[in-house]
Amino acid sequence: MVISFRVFFLELQNIFQGELERQTVFLDRNIIMPHYTPRELPFREPQIKEISGIVSSSLNGKRSDNIFIYGKIGTGKTVTTRYVLSQLEEFAQKNSSRVATAYINCRNHNSKYKVLLKALKRFSPEGQFIGFSAAFIYEKLLEFAEQNAVQIVLALDEIDKVKDLDELMYALTRCNDELESGGLSVIGISNHVFFKDRLGGRTKSSLCENEIVFKPYNAAELRAILAKRVEKAFKPGIVDEAAINLAAAMAAHESGDARTAVMLLLRAGEAADREGLQRVSDAEVQKAKSRVEEEIIFNMISTLPEQEQLVLYSIACMTIEKKGVRRITGQQESGVFFSGDVFEQYREIAKRFKESVVSARWYREYINELETYGLIVTTSSGKGIRGNTRLIKLGFDAQKIKETLEKELLKAV
Ligand code: ADP
Ligand code: MG
Q1: Which of the ends of the chain has fewer CB neighbours closer than 10 A, N or C?
Q2: How close is the Cα of 82 to the center of ligand 1, in Å?
Q3: How far is CA 190 from CA 55, 139, 187, 269, 382, in A?
Q4: What b/e string do you get for 192-205 counting C-beta neighbours within 10 Å, with b at 16 or more?
Q5: Within its chain, how far is the Cα of 164 from the centroid?
Q6: 314 in a structural domain
């Protein structure tokens, strides 16, 4: 018994020894991970200034105006907002200003109730609130602001995920009328440029007191961003300039998305480690390309509004389960479906997930959006098929899309 325990222990030591001695190109891998918030954010100074200018009134005990931030994925909205919030907290603490901030990603907190609960838990971490009504949580949040005379700044990232956003915004706006002291303001963030047009009138006017657009980065900007992060993330002299240039060019070409650029270098570095290389060249970036593209696509699918996810899910299910359209010639086209048939499938699936069913007009709009994201391809049926309707085909692997969406949609229930 004693002997076997010792053998086990020796083996354990060997495993860790091996890990420690393994060569790596990274100095601090964390710095090149997408979730990392760098202290410097080149090319976002104007946005940082604009946001901090607005929220700074909270330091003087005044409610700051709401802000709506939008722009494509990877344009630095999350990282910039988190940076401003952390600076605000730091300054408030040093100067004893009564300011409290909370960053909430609505992908994980997708209803009025969940958002209020998350905010309250942030401000009263020791409290037990699960199971209480939304009205109770709301009152507790008011009590926190009132009793501490605190200005709350609530950043709601991926705000388009909140199912009952009108109710949430109404509650958050109303709370300022009810408070004698203290206040609450919202920074809403969305990756969807179309989202603003879908807001109800009252929600729009309250959320969009200020609007800030984040534009995609160009190749030169991405190169500079990458060079800064590489400096701290990798050992000196390991990453070729050609690797940085290629990653920047690829990301700029795709979408101007800094997340793609950062991920390309992360995966290139990991590939170098796996192969025992002491250098990261453009060849490693090239190798990382298809994997990163896939990771970015699946991340993007997770950020889609729920109804668009349901439409995409319907197409993925049909691709797996059903035969495609048949031309008059008898030729079957697998994976290609009539837009009308997809709409029928979507209606069934939306009901199955207990979601409301949108009208055909909205459905067509979602199809257009899914196409602009490159997730589907549509064509006109042309001759040889009944009438002249739109045909839809999935742009990526149906099984993987289906699995990703199942996780997302079940989380949302
Ligand atoms: P968004 O929220 O707009 O989708 P993120 O804020 O998540 O974008 O940024 C995507 C990635 O790019 C993150 O890893 C982030 O750290 C990085 N990034 C974005 N903008 C900059 C910048 N100006 N400087 C350094 N890194 C940046
Ligand atoms: Mg983001």
Answers
A1: N
A2: 11
A3: 19, 27, 10, 31, 37
A4: beebbeebeeebee
A5: 19
A6: yes
Q: What is the CATH number of the domain that holds 245?
A: 1.10.8.60
Cα-Cα-Cα-Cα torsion 100, 103, 108, 114, nearest 10 degrees, comes to: 20
33 domain residue, yes or no? no
Nearest listed ligand to the Cα of residue 81: 1
Strand partners, 154: 102, 186
Instruction: Report the pLDDT value the prediction gives residue 9, as an integer from 0 to 100.
Output: 56
Supply the pTM of this predicted model: 0.86
Mutate to test the pocket of ligand 1, among 79, 225, 255 (most ligand atoms within 8 A of CB): 79
Same domain as 363, residue 270:
no
Query: Does ligand 1 have an atom closer than 6 angstroms to the CB of 392?
Result: no
pLDDT at 10: 53
- pLDDT per position as a tens digit, 217-234: 999 999 999 999 999 999
CATH classification of the domain holding 333: 1.10.10.10
Domain count within the chain? 3
Ligand 1 site, residue 262, Cβ cutoff 6 A: yes
Residue 389: strand, helix, or coil = coil
- Looking at the structure, tell me whether residues 298 and 338 fall in a common domain: no
For the chain, the average pLDDT equals: 90
pLDDT at residue 8 tops 70: no
CA pair distance 134, 154, nearest whole angstrom: 17
**Helix (H) or strand (E) segment spanning residue 124:** none
DSSP characters over 166-218: HHHHHHHHHHHHH-SS-EEEEEEEES-TTGGGGS-HHHHHHHTTSEEEEPPP-
Q: Which residue is closest in CA terms to ligand 1's atom 13?
A: 34
State the residue range of the domain holding 294.
Answer: 2-25+217-302
DSSP 93: H
- The ligand 1 atom nearest the CA atom of 79: 6
